[in-house]
Each structure stands twice: as C-alpha cells, then as structure tokens.
Amino acid sequence: MGSVFLLFFVHVKKKKLPRSIGIWSQLIFMGLVNNVIPFSLIVWGQTSIASGLASILNATTPLFTILIAHLFTPDEKITIHKAIGLIVGFIGVFLVIGPTVLSIADIAPQLAVLTATCSYAVAGVFGRRFHTLGLDPLVTATGQVISSTAILLPITLLTNYSFLRQATTSLPVLGSLIGLGLFSTAIAYTIYFLLLSRVGATNLLLVTFLIPITAMVLGAAFFNERIVTRQVIGMLIVFTGIIASNRRRFRL
C-alpha cells in the first residue's frame, strides 16, 4: 500500500527512480533493516505486550544509534557524557522490562522489540549515504518501500494468503492498511529521509521521545491498557540517558 502511494507521488512530482544496480542493492538493504526486520519483530512482539511497553522499548533507538554510529562512522564517536548516557539509558530499559526478564515467555517479545530498535539504528546510520548519492528523499523512500514489499509480499503470500481476502472484505482492515500505507509509510518515510539528509541520524531518531507518550495514552484510551508506574519511571530514566548522551544538542 505504501509503495502504491509513493509511486503515485513520484509520478506526480516527475521524479525518476534510480537504474543503478549498486544503488538498488543499498535500497534493498535499507528496506531490510528499516522495514522488514523491525516491522516483523514489532508486530510479533505486540501480540504479547502492550503498545505502551513496546513504545518505551522503541524509545531506546537513539541509544543503539550512538553505539552503531561510534563503530561505523568517523565523526560520531562515543564520549564520556555519551557513555554515561548509555549506561543510564540501559538501566532504564532493564527497569521497564522488570521481573519478566526471569521468564523466557515474557522476555522474548520484549527482546524482539529491542532488536527492532537496533535495526532502526542501523538504518539511521546507513541511510546517511543516500544524501551523498544525490537521491531525492522521495525517491529514496520509494525505493526502500518497494524493496521491502518485494521481500515481504512473497513471504506473506506463502504463509498467510487469507489476508488478501480479509483486506478486501473488511472495511476496518482495509482502512487500517490505507492509513498505515499512506500516513505511516509513504508520507512518514518521505519526511524521514528529508530530515536524515539535513539533521543526521542521531538527531532524527530523537523523535522516538514522542512515541511512548502518545502510545501509552492511546493504548490506555482505546485498548484499556494499564500504565504501570515502573514503566513510566523506566521511561523517564531512558529519556535522561538519551538527553545526557546528547547534551550538546539540547543546549539552548
């Protein structure tokens, strides 16, 4: 659905998709780490854990971004305040997960969401190259989502063919797919690559600050999910760690 909308936008804007195999190989990798892996893990994880908890774990993306950027970029190395921020942030993660760490059944979905956030961090660092390649953000978003579709659609058809019938006969399902495809994928990733080219991966992924707040409120309002005090405290500690590790960016 997102691919359809993005291809329409590319046509309207009269942009051209790349023809280089080298560029498409990078777009395929971007689609894998920014869509296929995290989308699959988060969707599976949220079959067992609440959206509020998943969103708090997702807010650790900047912490993983700092680690990966340190390893793979020459200009974003870990400093003392970043190291302190990382330690504080991961303490917050363990507090959020809480006693479920002792249960394999409960910890697996949470680790799946954490793995997804790590994949997002890889994508954020890797995605910086598309600006240097001269690709328009809309074209980059389109190439990434097309690549993701090419990977996931055959798998989906082989494992759960019935979803097509459900999507075409159920208005709520169809409406959800359109909403996810247009707003959460097509428009969101166009903005994502535009900002990535302007402010960098670490600054961009600080947007995950907003996800736990909105997700917990919406989860409580529409799904009667309970907001646990331990999770709120853990979220605040995670935020403290991220702010500490990015303190220069937060100076007025």
Features:
13 helices; 252 residues; globular; mainly alpha
Give the oligomeric state: single chain
How many strands, which pairing sense, and closed or not: the largest β-sheet? none
Helix % is over 70%
Tell me the number of helical segments per DSSP (H or I, 4 or more residues long).
13
Q: What do the pLDDT scores average to?
A: 84
Could you tell me the strand content as a percent range? under 5%
Cα Rg = 19 Å
List low-pLDDT spans.
Answer: none
Instruction: Estimate the global geometry from the Cα principal axes.
Output: globular
Structure description:
By secondary structure, this protein is mainly α. Helix content is 78%, strand content 0%. It is built from 13 helices and no strands. The chain has helices at residues 2-13, 21-45, 51-58, 61-72, 80-97, 104-126, 129-132, 137-159, 163-169, 171-199, 201-205, 210-223, 229-245. The longest helix has 29 residues, at 171-199.
Quickly describe the structure.
Helix content is 78%, strand content 0%. The chain is mainly alpha-helical and 252 residues long.
Topology:
Blueprint: H1 2-13, H2 21-45, H3 51-58, H4 61-72, H5 80-97, H6 104-126, H7 129-132, H8 137-159, H9 163-169, H10 171-199, H11 201-205, H12 210-223, H13 229-245
